[in-house]
Design a protein that fits this description.
alpha/beta, Aldehyde Dehydrogenase, Chain A, domain 1, Aldehyde Dehydrogenase, Chain A, domain 2, 2 domains, 8-stranded mixed β-sheet, 7-stranded mixed β-sheet, globular
Length: 513
């Protein structure tokens, strides 16, 4: 079978469409930054490469600290004007921006395929969730902002690369709808062109968006610690998040810090194995490069033989590879569960962690081969990682206590409920968790002891959309919780002495979920 790139989907095709759709933001030789209401050819563009096959793509135009300072100053000026704009005018502009993005939906999705390796269906879902979610806020925002005012300064967003639209752009649009100017740093590892196109469409409609690129350590003093900011919103790992948390705590600033946690799926006194097979298969969406992925299964030892049969049936049916490779030019794009990891370095890091865990006693119960992938002839496959599962990773391994952010599962066997809970709480807090158990009474007894913001009974939990709330417990979250009304409350000012639901240095307040 000879595979080829689907005609019309090459990177050059996508970039040329960007130049035609938003020539103010895309030049033939580089992408621009946007601040102060103007697109700027500033910053130092660095090379970019697609995780799909190593193709050279547009790289971020990195500002230095002084350049970022000018950008923030421009956002502060925009905020002073925007925060006084009547809500109906803000709604009209945000609505127009959403519909403009909808008109370019397929191009935004294609950019996500090239820049961060999402299969076509997953990329389209990322765009659609953003737009549909903001439409919901447009219908609900009047009651949400009643008695509340915008923040005293703009919101600064520093987000990971995995969900540029449904997490980052969605948050930016809602933050603007609530009356704030918005700053965003493009993720270092991917999403530049997608975010730039979406931003260009938004600023045409009058939205006060600032979009800049640069290194996190270089820009952090400005985008995190700048005294004119009203709120810092961060999505990323615990090490970087801890530095942000220290900075915002010292300043007493409003903050939303979503950090990683080891989300666990417990299996205890359970027997619906066909359902679990389907759920395990679905858990590999986007190669588990999601904040709500489940990379750890904690299994009752006496059920392991049945669990293993269900697990292997799921992972044996996974399809991965190049999301744009087809056999015939008229074929639809392939239905894949995942493509590459975000880059070759991450794939090598994960492979090294797996090899080291096995050398120290972890048992490989499944290791697929890249030969099973769906690839173009001779393409670079250095960013791909085949599904892998290890039984009992050694405590010394990062796979024992941290999120792998790739299609590598670990399985831990336990004999008692106390062991089950200890294993599920290994990372001192998580965003989501699930307990598969037949009896409701068992779930209601065990679930309060699981340190996760949301715990599912016989079903996975996700970040959620619209009115579903989202947060984390323990070290997985710092600051205000979000989702539904809470997202608007996090970026607006309410009554004096208001205590926002969230996980703060001096208190934790959980909403009803």
């Amino acid at each position: 079978m000879h595979m080829r790139l689907k005609p019309g989907t090459a990177w050059r095709d996508a970039y040329d469409r960007c130049c035609a759709a938003a020539p103010e933001a895309f030049h033939d030789d580089r992408v621009l930054n946007h601040w102060g209401g103007v697109w700027h050819r500033d910053g130092r563009p660095v090379p970019g490469f697609s995780p799909l096959d190593g193709t050279a793509i547009a790289g971020p135009p990195r500002l230095d600290r002084a350049g970022a300072g000018r950008a923030v100053a421009g956002a502060v000026e925009e905020h002073r004007r925007w925060r006084h704009l009547p809500l109906d005018e803000r709604k009209a502009m945000v609505s127009a921006a959403v519909e403009s993005m909808a008109a370019h939906r397929d191009l935004l999705a294609l950019l996500l395929v090239w820049e961060i390796g999402k299969p076509w269906k997953t990329a389209c879902a990322d765009v659609d969730r953003c737009l549909d979610g903001v439409r919901w806020y447009l219908a609900e925002v009047d009651r949400m902002v009643g008695g509340r005012t915008p923040l005293p300064g703009p919101v600064s967003n520093i987000a990971s690369w995995n969900y540029p639209m449904s997490v980052l752009m969605h948050a930016m649009l809602v933050q603007a709808l609530a009356g704030n100017a918005v700053i965003a740093k493009t993720p270092t590892d991917g999403g530049l062109s997608c975010l730039t196109l979406a931003c260009a469409l938004a600023v045409r409609e009058g939205l006060p968006f600032t979009l800049v690129s640069g290194g996190g350590s270089e820009l952090s003093p400005v985008l995190v610690a700048g005294r004119s900011l009203g709120c810092v919103s961060f999505v990323g790992g615990r090490s970087a998040g801890a530095k942000v948390a220290t900075s915002v705590a010292d300043l007493g600033r409003r903050h939303v810090l979503e950090q990683e946690g080891l989300n666990c799926w417990g299996v205890w006194e359970y027997g619906e194995w066909d359902l679990l097979t389907r759920q395990i298969w679905a858990s590999f969406d986007y190669g588990k490069q999601r904040c709500t992925a489940y990379p750890r299964f904690v299994v009752q030892r006496s059920l392991f033989h049945e669990f293993l049969q269900a697990y292997l049936a799921a992972v044996g049916s996974l399809r991965f590879g190049h999301p744009l490779a087809v056999e015939d030019p008229d074929d639809p794009l392939p239905q894949l569960d995942f493509g590459p990891l975000i880059n070759a370095s991450k794939a090598k890091e994960l492979a090294d962690q797996v090899d080291e865990a096995i050398a120290r006693g972890g048992v490989p119960i499944h290791r697929a081969s890249l030969d099973a992938g769906h690839f173009l002839p001779g393409q670079d496959i250095s960013a791909y990682f085949a599904p892998t599962a290890l039984l009992n990773p050694p405590p010394s391994s990062p796979l024992h206590h941290a999120e792998p952010f790739g299609p590598a599962d670990t399985i831990v066997l336990v004999d008692t409920e106390a062991e089950l809970l200890a294993a599920m709480n290994a990372s001192n807090g998580a965003l989501v968790a699930t307990l598969s158990c037949d009896e409701e009474e068992t779930f209601h007894r065990l679930s309060p002891e699981v340190r996760a913001f949301k715990v599912g009974h016989n079903r996975p939990r996700s970040r959620g959309d619209r009115d579903e709330l989202f947060g984390g417990l323990g070290a997985s979250w710092r600051g205000a919780f979000v989702g539904g009304d809470l997202l608007v409350r996090a970026v607006t000012v309410g009554p004096d002495a208001e205590r926002l639901p969230g996980n703060f240095p001096h208190y934790t307040l959980l909403p009803r979920i």
